Every structure is written in structure tokens, then in C-alpha cells.
Amino acid sequence: MISRLERLLRSMDIFPFLLVFRWITLAAPLWSLLHEAGTSLLISPLWIFGLVLLVNGIISLFYHILNRWTLEHPLLMGIDLLFCALILTLSGGSNSPYYLYTISPLLAAAFFFQLRGALISAGAFTILYLLADLLAQRLYPSPAPSNLSLTTQLVSIWLFPLLLAYPSILIHELNKARDALAAARDELTEQNKELANAHHQLRLVHDLTVLLQGAADLPSVEQRVLSAIVNGLGFHQAILGIVTPGHEEIGHWKLHPVNSSFPHVPPIPLNRENGALLQALIEQKTLITSPEDTLIHHPLLNSWLRTARWYVHPLFLREHTIGILLVELEKNQELTKSQESILKMVANQAALSLGTTLLCIDRAQRLAIETERNRIAREMHDSIAQSLFGIIYSLSACIQMLPEHPEKVRQELSELLTLATNVHQDVRRSIFDLWPSTLTSDRFQQDLQNYVDSFCRPRHFKLIFDIKGDFDHLPSGLRRSLYRIAQEAVANAARHSGVDCAKVCLMVANGEVHLMIVDEGRGFDPAIALERSLNREHFGLRGIQERARALGGDCEIQSQPGAGTRILVHLPLTSPSHG
Asked: Could you tell me the fold of the domain covering 213-362?
């Protein structure tokens, strides 16, 4: 109903109503034709009526064309006015039964052209009406019309168009308002589409960001980026190639969804001569491929890629080249600005995530190298350096015993040979990071005592052990670390305490390991000792602390001059560093 009313309010749809009015006004001439027996007209009223019917019929059949012509050429209204004036002249002037019929063009002018059309048409028809009445009086011997009748008709010529012009103006303004509202509605609809598209883009980027935050490695990042493009944006398939950090080559090609026909491609040197893809990557330009392009100088990959059209977007993070993204396009598909915009947003997010992941991998590798270097340094200090110090100490004692005590020297050299053999084995263990799988609680105590005995020769240094809990089922890496910490602590006690014994307490309970090494010796100032240990020649105490922290625990050194020393180490059982 509303749509019909809107159509009725359009000025071009008023024409059928005016056409109906013209037919209705023929009721008066028809009545006159049927009830007046005689006539004094020059032309038969039947012929006049037939002429009017003919014109009405033509207008009715072609009203769409006439409607458009009238709106485009307003002067065509003059033809209708002249025709009506002719009918008035032939049918008796002011006494004509066609009077209402003849004012129908005035109504049309008022509807189509508002006030201006009403005034012009009324003025023109007033002149034509007076001329028609004058000619009719000369042609037909009939009494002149009364002044009242003539005035009424002239007033009607002006009154009807002016009255109808005002509704026409209102309709015209209403149409303008309706068109403005329609334009505003269309604009709001378009803006709503843009906002919905922008929301979709932001939502996609947000979801991709959340997914990428949970990606643990480079393949996971690649998979989630490609899934966002294919599943989120609706493209058929997408490919990622990653530039190997530190190498001028691109590899790690990954396709989504997985296709068994996709070739395995080794890393390709990153230079312009290796195809349009690498040229676009080096020049940091987007590209839409065509089947005629040489995309990459790898026959299998190039043949596979040339079966489709691709949108190519290079991935960069600051000055670093990250990789390249390829998104398949339909054969006749052209990317819209919206699609290109969202692809650029996804590509930028992918570059950020991939670049960050590659940076983390690089840092992790560097940290692993540094950690391994520190581990080797600690291993060498804890075992080899201490053993070599013992050998040097014993050799010095042998020199002092020569030549008076050759048998004692022989015995010491024999024991030093055994110690040197152990040092050789420690070197091998440090190189291959091996440790006997049979490091039990008993072996732990025996090895520590043997180590101290070899280190302190010729004097004796006793260790008192107090081990509680299930030591034998601790992770092998944790047992090894506990041994190294205890080894360093008892070596310090034997070397610096001035006493001949120390106590080693180890307890495994409540998900933690507690190690304590105590001596009743001369003690020291921990702050001064730790400051000295920044020198690599004094690596012991700081090495104990660093090893404990690396295992997720802590180390507390309690000592003061003349009050002995206590080293407390607490380690969790759940640290991933135990190995």
C-alpha cells in the first residue's frame, strides 16, 4: 500500500488520472448529443464527438510516450490548448457542452509545471477561449451569453488550475523530500555496508591476532595466517614463503588447504633473476600474476603456480624481509578496494607475527648458545679445573719430598695417574654432556668423598652425609646439577675453611630438593666474596648461584668471619631445565 501511494505521488503518474478526467467530462456532450433533437452547428455534433473520442483514444493508447514528451517539451501543451479551443469554436463557444473537457489541459499544466504552468496555461487559454467564443457567435445564430455566465467560465479557467497548482507544489516538494530521504537511506545503507565490512575486517584481524598470540612456533603462525585468509576471507587457497633469517634465500613454502600436488621446494636464492615473485619481494611491490609470467625459477613450482592467478603481497617488518604471501584469485575476479584493504591488513599482521616469531627463534638460539657456553664453563670449573688444581698441589708436594722420600713420591704419582685418568673422563663427559645413569645416593656420596680425597691429598678432609628422601628417582639432569653444586661447595670448604670436615645434607620432600653444605671453619664476608667472583678466576660461589637460578631455584650463602659457613640451595622438582 505504501509503495502504491509513493507511486501515486510521482508527478509522472498523475497523467492517468487526468486521462480519466477527460473521459468523464465527455458525459455532458454525450447527454447533449442524445437529448437535443436538432442543431444549428455547421458540423454535426456526432462528428465533433467522434473527433474528441479519437483524440482521447490516441492519448489513452500512447499516454506513456505523451507523458514523457510533455515533461521534456512543455510547449506541447499548446497543441492540446489549440485543439480544445477548436472544439469550443465548433461546438458553440461559451454555450458548448465541452467546456469541462477543454479545461483538462489546464489541470495537466498545473500538475506538471506547478504555479508557473497554471498561470501561463490559464492566460493563454483565456485568450483562446474569448476568440473561440467570438468566432462561435459569428458562425452560429445564437443568443450571446450572459455576462454572469461568461465571467463564471473565465474565473473557472483561472480558479481550477490555481487550486490544483498548490497540491502539485506540495506533491513536488513531497517527492523531493522523498528522493532526499531515499538518497539518505541509500547513503546510510552504503555506510552501513562499509561499517559492517570494516567491523568484519577488524574482527578478522582481532581473531587472527588472538590466534597468533597462542602460536608456539613458526609452522603454527603460518597455518593460522593461511587459515584466516582462506576460511575467514573466503579465498580458494593461499601460500606463504618465508625468508630464512641470516640467509639470502626463501623457503618454508606452505599451502592451505593442503594439496598433494604442491611440490616440495628447496630454499631459493633471493635475487631478481629468480622470477617475478622474488622481484616483487625485493622491490616491496604487490603483484597480480598472469599465466604468461615466469613467477619463479623452479620448474615444478612455477608450473604449479601458473595454473591460477595470484595476488602477491610481500611481507616486511621494518627493514627486515620476512616472506611473501600469495592469494589465489578467480579467473575473471578483480580485487575490490575492500578486499585489497583487508588483505593488506592481514599481510601486515602476518609480517608482524612471523617477524616476531623469527626474532624470538633467533634470540632463543643465541640464548641457547650462551647457556651452553656457560654450562661448559661451569662444568670445566666444577670438575676439570678443581681436579687440575689438585694435581698441581700434589705435584708440588712430590717435588718437596724428593729426593729424601722416593717411595712416597712413587705412591703419590701413582695416585696422580688415577686422578689424571678421571680428569680425562670428565673432559669426555663435558664434551658429550654425559653422566652415568647409575648416579644413586650411594654413588653421589662416594664420588664426592673420592673427589675431596683426591683434591686434598696428602691431608684428609671428611664429609658427613645426611640424605633423606628418594634421591635415586630424581631427573638425571637434576642429580647431576646437585652433584656439581655440592662438589663446588665442598671444594671451597676444603680449600678455605681451615677445618678437616664438612656436612652435606640433602632432603627430597614436598616437590622440592633442599641441599645444605655446612662447615665450622673460619668463615668469610659473602658480599666481598661474591664481588670477587665476578673475576672468572673466582667462579665458585657465583657459579653455584647461577646454576641454582637456572634450575628455577635459589641459593643462600650464610657466613661471617670466625662463624663458619652455610650454603643453602632450594630447587623445585618441576622445572623444565632438569632434563
From this structure: Beta-Lactamase (3.30.450)
